[in-house]
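Tokenised fold entry reproduced for everyone:
>
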Amino acid sequence: MQEITFELLERFRAREAERPELRTLHAALAKTELKDLAYVPSAAAKLNGDFSIELKTRGITWQKRSGRCWMFAVLNILRERISEVCGLDKFELSANYLAFYDKLEKANNFLELIIENAHKPLNDRMMEYVLGGVGDGGYWDMAADLVAKYGVVPASVMPETWQSTHTESFRKLLNTLLRKDAVLLRELIARGEDPQPAKEAMLEEVYRMECVCYGEPPKQFDFEYRDKDGVFHAERGLTGRSFYEKYLAGSLEDYITVTNHPTHGLPMNLYYVFHYMGSMANRDVINLNLSLEEMEELTLKQLQDGEPVWFGCDSGACGDREQGIWDPDSLDFSGLMGGVDFRMSKGDRLEYHDSFATHAMIFVGVNLDENGRPNRWKIENSWGEEAGRKGYFVCSEKYFHEYVYEVIVRKKHLSPAQRALLEQEPRRIQPWEGDWL
């Protein structure tokens, strides 16, 4: 391996001395945030304006300091359907309720995987994955599984707590407990004992911790509201499941995750599942990998059909939270760094761990140009009304192409050829192979 020599440093110094603009750039950045100086107002201005297709939504939600964007995005789609049925102008479903069961199911899955892999060494790839612990994050399929099992409740029935909206401390404690439990389970199995009684006691401790931090989910509740015409309604003795079945039955059953991961490991037109990645034991995350053009066309079809689209993207790329935009042309980091070229292909960014889906939101609008093609997309975020444009954001077509990695669409929008892919045996992919997704 070659080391940095002083001769090499002198060559750098001599060549960079021939670039006087670097002194100006250094002075500008000495007291200024990088992103603020990289901002290109003329490019960002192209994202202003209304949208030729725009869906009505019932207000912005706020996940605060938690990683539950995927859950909020699903619940915000469901709350629109309840609002239509009940005639509500503003309504919100409880993310705290679903988060409670998400953590409980993830803890159970963790403990079951520890039992299943108890004889493997700790440096085994599966054990390293499992011992990474549980977090807030998730996918559409995980939320759909939770909703199908536990239903949903109004936010007023199980409101947020400080811990549900500021989850770092709780997650650290939970993972410490689970790793301690992993030690005990492996010791029991090594002695030839049945681990399940101990596992039940361990899971009860998780339940207890969640009751303290999140509150215990209601066994029954009343749904009382006044509709937009001023008429009072009261539904008595509901459960999360009965509430879901009354207002949302079948709402999440006919969707498929369409990804655009143009990598060497995932060819186009591939039906695949990530094994072990669901919140629940024995559940998978199911995907269909299609071309960018197909993914965008399916997104457009669903918006034209009057339905928002859940999507996953890299929110850390080319975005300005204050301005409410995501657009590569609106942030000129290359010029700010003296002409350094940061460009990579979408597939290379994924495979080399430079980018992956870090955030989930919903598309609620799109603007079509004179040729009927999208040029900007309206986004409902879950970062509160103080972020972006009163909680809404806009992304450019270029951002969609480069940094949107997955969308959720109804299967009815798939072409016959795309639907035929779902009849094939899916390729099973281990969870650590999806670290870049």
